Amino acid sequence: MKTRIVSFLSVLAILFILAASSHAMNLQTIGTADYNGGSYNLIYDNDSPFGSIVWLDFTNSDNTWDNQVSWASGLNGAGLVNYHFNPGVNMNWSGSSWRLPSTVDDPASLGFDVTTSEMGHLYYTELGKPAWDFLGNTAPFTHLVPYTYWSGTEYAYNPIGAWFFNTGNGGQGAFFKDEYYCALAVRPGQLESAAVPEPSTLLLVGGGLAGLALIKRKYRKQ
Q1: What is the pTM of this model?
Q2: At residue 53, what are phi and psi to the nearest 5 degrees?
Q3: Nearest residue to 69 (alpha-carbon basis) of 43, 89, 97
């Protein structure tokens, strides 16, 4: 019986380590960017529905869809965003540009629990939020707010509208472009060299390893 308990606890500890490693792999801070008088995290996501991207952890105040599209594309101007990557990080942007997050333009993408958009995938898959849940802790983001954000994808069924995502409840829909919503910017890119794990990730993995060591010690005594 004791052997079974020890084996079960060992499996739990291993799963704990794998979960921590998976999170670090899919969503990690690779540096910061100086923009608009502040410093904001650059967060790499290698599991986005439209390919690997980098999130700029800056929420642009609410504005119309056209203005938010212009804001995101304007980030590509020389000297507007200054990057400070972590040691060992090398990003291959492949000629890409900053833009608003993309969405699958399909009526089936309306509603909740939709992960086919970049923001929906971030909310439900990466941050692990359920529908109708308050945004709460959003690490490694520090400037993501519970509000409605514009997507860069127009609503083909009615071109006077565009897609949006509500980080306050996880809902996704389409509305008129002259509505005032917030915006986040993303830029497609490929991380060519691995970043050093963040302190929080090291603590999680360290905790799992410590748990395995403790289990092994108790097993030997028995």
Answers
A1: 0.78
A2: -140, 165
A3: 97
Q: Considering only CA atoms, which of 189, 112, 116 is closest in space to residue 151? A: 116
| Neighbouring C-beta atoms of residue 14, cutoff 10 Å | 13
Give kind and range of the element (H or E) at residue 11: helix 2-26
Residues 151/165, Cβ–Cβ less than 8 Å: yes
Q: Are 88 and 195 in contact (CB under 8 A)?
A: yes
For residue 67, report the phi and psi dihedrals to the nearest 5 degrees: -70, -35
First-last CA distance in the chain: 12
| Domain boundaries, given as residue ranges, for the chain | 27-188
In tens, the pLDDT along 85-137 reads: 999 999 999 889 999 999 999 999 999 999 999 999 999 999 999 999 988 88
Are the CB atoms for 1 and 192 separated by under 8 Å? no
Helix (H) or strand (E) holding 56: strand 53-63
Q: The tokens of 74 are what?
A: 């304007």
User: Which regions of 97-170 does DSSP assign to beta strands (E)?
Assistant: 148-154, 161-166
Question: Which CATH number fits the domain 27-188, given the four candidates 1.10.3470, 3.30.390, 3.10.100, 3.30.300?
Answer: 3.10.100
Q: Are 162 and 104 in contact (CB under 8 A)?
A: no
